[in-house]
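notes to self, project folder thing:

trying the whole complex as one job this time. last attempt i did each chain seperately and stitching them together was a nightmare. four parts in total, labels are on each line so i dont mix them up again. if this works i'll redo the older ones the same way
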Amino acid sequence: MSIKLPSPSDPALLRSLNRRTILRTLFDSDSLETLAGIVKKTGVSRPTVEASLAELAEQKWIEELSPDSSGPGRLGRPARRFRFRNEFGILVGLDLGIHKILVKIADTRGTVLHEHVYRMDGTSPEQLTVGKILEEVRAAINESGHRGSRIWAMGCGFPGVVTAAGVVQRSVVVPHLTGVNLAAELSEQLNTVVLVENDANLATLAEHREGASHDARSVVVVKTGRRISSGLIINGALLRGHHGAAGEIGALPILRWAEAPKLKDVVEYGQALGAGLAALVLAVDPEAVVIQGEFKDQEAALLAAVRTELDRFCIYTPSVQVSKLGAGAVAAGGVHLAGDRFRTDVLGLSFAQ
Amino acid sequence: MSIKLPSPSDPALLRSLNRRTILRTLFDSDSLETLAGIVKKTGVSRPTVEASLAELAEQKWIEELSPDSSGPGRLGRPARRFRFRNEFGILVGLDLGIHKILVKIADTRGTVLHEHVYRMDGTSPEQLTVGKILEEVRAAINESGHRGSRIWAMGCGFPGVVTAAGVVQRSVVVPHLTGVNLAAELSEQLNTVVLVENDANLATLAEHREGASHDARSVVVVKTGRRISSGLIINGALLRGHHGAAGEIGALPILRWAEAPKLKDVVEYGQALGAGLAALVLAVDPEAVVIQGEFKDQEAALLAAVRTELDRFCIYTPSVQVSKLGAGAVAAGGVHLAGDRFRTDVLGLSFAQ
DNA sequence: TCCTTTATGCAAGGACATTTCATAAAGAAT
DNA sequence: ATTCTTTATGAAATGTCCTTGCATAAAGGA
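result (full assembly):
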């Protein structure tokens, strides 16, 4: 699936590296790029850029558009223009739960093109099967008009502990899936890379990429509700933990009593939350803390209570915010996970210094 | 200081990359390597290896030894033999405290060649100045017989919070150094890269590299004593935190009361420690927990108490051990930090897939 | 002394990248 | 309409680096 690089002993490595650089330049650029523009941006010589563009166009990664000579101050011979074909394949983000299966279809840049949801009443968790998941994913793809498109990667949020390989280790809400290799089964049927991750962790990833803590290097995200859990971003990357169980702080007594919060007690709740988080904040020293949950007009009071408590215990109190992401956070995180994989595989990581 | 790589548009990149591969092969190999052996190991063609070896020898990174034809089953023309000149420069590890300044001098592989200690009674912390530090480091280098050698990097453990750039942010034990840019001042005088890090964090690094949790991907290390603090290894790397204050869990009430533990109360102490660590273990899901401190024959009782408490709260209880590293842990961590920098700069990171 | 084995020396050939000079296509000026 | 200026493309020459393949060197064993 991933695109391999030749070894350093093969001169073809240079061509591959340059092709990547150029593809990445087009990927990163919102507007169109001209040949001469790429030469200037990358510092690579024109003949090389030209050859790479030809190869990339042949492989359908990019396409050449007709030259544009319109516009006022445009002097000289019109430049050849190119664009990244972000519709070349798709990414899938998936939120698996007992109340809904939510599927997001995105282009390779991560822009969501279509959303599809299948709702359940939550009383029959055994409805959630590999077959049902496949059915809804395929329905979503068909609705989006991408039947037959290549799926570059799929990121799935699952309510439970999942190993790095994608095997369900344990789940309180859907115990019948324990032991199932979700990643392998979905991967085989959909013929793509499937990444399965704890749902709270995926929501954390979404928070980091497009939410309140956008681009902070290290973030603690706390999900409140029936059960409290958390997720950690460390150095810009999601922390999975040794068993894939990082973030499961719901078992803590200090936080457990606060289940099912009443809005009247929001200050008390905030105090408990702050005290519970203090250990984590002191240990990790994050840049930001984000709280996910429904607080309506009590938001300010909650934040104040949490901040006060953190101030009491911590050396450095991070920024504390309430999440603005809604019910689509987990699936959005799935799209990000898939997009990360796509960029790693296809565009390559930054060059090792 | 660091060795830069040409851009991918320069064919010389290949040569640099191959030179690195070959240098790393010699660095990683304990015994001597022959030319033909390197060819087989790396897969690079012989003429290329030959050219790279010649360049590396010219730059004094490696040296050629006389061919060795002795030995029983050694048939054929004797191979040319090469070795990495691990004495080409040195690494320095430093432990700065109010009771001692400990300096470790190591070769570029991280093997400690010499230790030097300057003891203080702890009552006059203002003794610890940049000038005094320099004096002891220079004394250590001279004693080790490496006067004039190039220092590739120095890693310093400091009792306080230090920014990533090396500026002392706060320190309870040596408050007079607050605001001092330790890294910059030492770097200028010693003409080398200086990395300053919290001392507990450096001890954590040492624990990860040569201690009880050797090579675990994620580790929580707890330092007990007058003041409790911790360090985290995440994905094999030390967690600094946004302000460089990661691990300062000593401010927690649940842990604070346990200061100055009496050995009689070791079970009670272990329970408090386990309860305090539970939040961290649940959040991070580490592979191992290591406890540093003096417990003598009470060790087993302490471990049992901590484990019991962790079992009560956690989903997955990590392995819990007591540290075997002694008073030299911080300086050892400094050597590792310096060694990491050396390997990154000189040998390069693994090639980005 | 000759054969086998292991290793080095050297030349030929191919892939890439860069620089340089010539040509093409547009707007602006005469 | 023609010419000039600007911007961009086309194509050839040159050099670096790597690999393959053949010849040579240096050891032990028969």
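what i see at first glance: The mean pLDDT of chain A is 89.
need to look closer tmrw
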